[in-house]
Amino acid sequence: MQNYLQLTSDISPYLIDSTAVKLDEHGIFTSHIGEMTVAMKANSEFFGHPVWGPEYFEESHRNETFRSRWQAAVGSLDGKIVVDIGCGPGNFYATVGGSPQVLIGVDVSYEGLKMAKQVGYTPLWADAQDLPLVNGFADVAIATATIHHCDDMAKVLSEAARILRPGGLLMTDLDPQVTAMHFKGLAAFMRKHRFKLYWLTRSPHYLSMEYRKLRIPCEAHNKIPGDGITPALYHQVLDPLGFEFKLYPHNHDLGAEVLEGNMGTLPSRLRMLQKMSGIDSDSPEGAQSIMCIARKPSVGT
């Protein structure tokens, strides 16, 4: 990996109980994690895999489209306290850059956190559903391609909201939308058996069985039709907390244009499955993901 800015690494002021979080010999803060669920184990193993972890870092979410969209959403990180929940090997900061005062990367993948440390994160091995971090300290909380990897999506979102200071910014992105992937009939059959079809057609989308056995269980809420993120989840969690937020349904081919209300274009293979399922690909419900940009209410508002 290339060299990145080395940031403030003392996170003890932000820990609920500094005696319960240990800094180990690899420079990783480790906290207690209760039961490691199937999804948590899969995420830990996949994103820390010696081959697939670095491949994910180099190839996923690392282009101008993502940089443009995320920078437009969060603005400058300079001088801010940032918490990246589900940071994996460090893709978000490696893509966006900046000079935050503190950059904490939280993940269940220990080996993935080793990679994130090289990028400039202060790595914290912890459960996104039970962060060992104090209330109200972070300027920015990020969760990109994270919430749907966790068993309790509402809990992850509420934890991100909890650690933000008044006026702090929450940004989530790249969580698959339920209504976009709710395939039916033949489309559901084709989606389920897509890798056989990819193999028969020599498609570049084909993934090996070994890869799939580890990667697919990571997707706690993206394995079957009708599972994934919904606008209702954000309202359920953020409305009672007084957050002001806006949701941006979008496909993955656009950058900052998403914040102007543009959705982009769905890949042709998914448009075909949506058409077969009676889903309108050009509607907000047909967009691949939902991006959320939320602001925690300031004191006294």
Outline the biggest β-sheet: 9 strands, mixed
Mean pLDDT: 92
List unreliable stretches of 5+ residues. Answer: 1-7
Number of helices: 11
Radius of gyration: 19 Å
What's the helix-strand series?
EEHHHEHEHEEHEHHHHEHE
- How are the strands ordered across the major sheet? 1-2-5-4-3-6-7-9-8
Q: What oligomeric state do the depicted chains represent?
A: single chain
Brief account:
By secondary structure, this protein is α/β, with parallel strands linked by helices. It is built from 11 helices and 9 strands.
What does this structure look like?
There is one protein chain. The chain is 32% helix and 18% strand. It is of the alpha/beta class and 301 residues long. Helix 5 links the parallel strand 4 (102-107) and strand 5 (122-125).
Question: What structural keywords apply?
Answer:
globular, 32% helix, 11 helices, nine-stranded mixed sheet, 301 residues, alpha/beta
Topology record:
Elements: E1 22-23, E2 29-30, H1 38-47, H2 52-59, H3 64-74, E3 81-85, H4 91-96, E4 102-107, H5 110-119, E5 122-125, E6 138-144, H6 153-163, E7 164-176, H7 185-192, H8 194-200, H9 209-215, H10 231-238, E8 244-250, H11 268-276, E9 289-295
Parallel strand pairs: 2-5, 3-4, 3-6, 4-5, 6-7
Antiparallel strand pairs: 1-2, 7-9, 8-9
Helix pairs in contact: 6-10, 7-11
